[in-house]
Amino acid sequence: GICELKCKTIYFNEKAYSRKELNEYINDLSTYISKNIKSDSPFVLLTCYNHIKTFIAFFAILRAKKIVVILDPLSKNLEITEIIEKIDPSLIIIPDIKNDKFLYDTELIFRKSKFYTSENLENVKLLAFTNAEDGYPKAAMLTEENLLFQAEILINTNKINFKSIICSLLPYSHMYGLMHGIIVPSQSETTSVILENNILNLKYILY
């Protein structure tokens, strides 16, 4: 399934994270989330920086049987407020990208929210908000089947295999960046390199 990592190694800031290490971080965070959730809301809002913390938090949320709601770090305050009011998340995760510690208490905001919905959320794993023409954010709901199918197409089309190295630069807050940076590496036996959004030096990428 989507929660099972197949990647060999993830590189971030010149440090290598093995599949075993990643699974340990993910399982620890998933257990912590499950124990401390204060609401029945299935939604967890994740601020998606291109960072190893985002990769770990994404799968920790899924293993805690919650739905990931991706948020662009550049979103305006009004947009964020509208999204929070719309989904009423049980947890908001804001990775501190300037701190090397892994997702400690100040980065996890648990909420005592009340959640009501008539939506059928069975097997939904991800909500991706986009700006609508009327100014109100709209969300696309993606199931595990949607995500795995898209990953399979990208893996087959690009002939990705255990010899491949994926360089992830596109923003994780957008679906194409999320697919290439998180979903595809997790579903293929590859080595992946996460580059932060502010690294746009082509020479650095190529050499």
Q: Would you kindly provide a written description of the structure presented here, covering whatever features stand out?
A:
With 207 residues, the protein is α/β, with parallel strands linked by helices. The protein has six helices and ten strands. The protein has helices at residues 19-36, 52-63, 77-87, 144-157, 175-186, 202-206; strands spanning 9-12, 15-18, 43-47, 67-71, 91-93, 108-110, 124-130, 138-143, 165-168, 191-194. The strands form two sheets. Strands 6-5-3-4-7-8 form a six-stranded mixed beta sheet, with helices on both faces. Helix 1 (19-36) packs across helix 2 and helix 4 packs across helix 5. Residues 201-207 have low confidence and may be disordered.
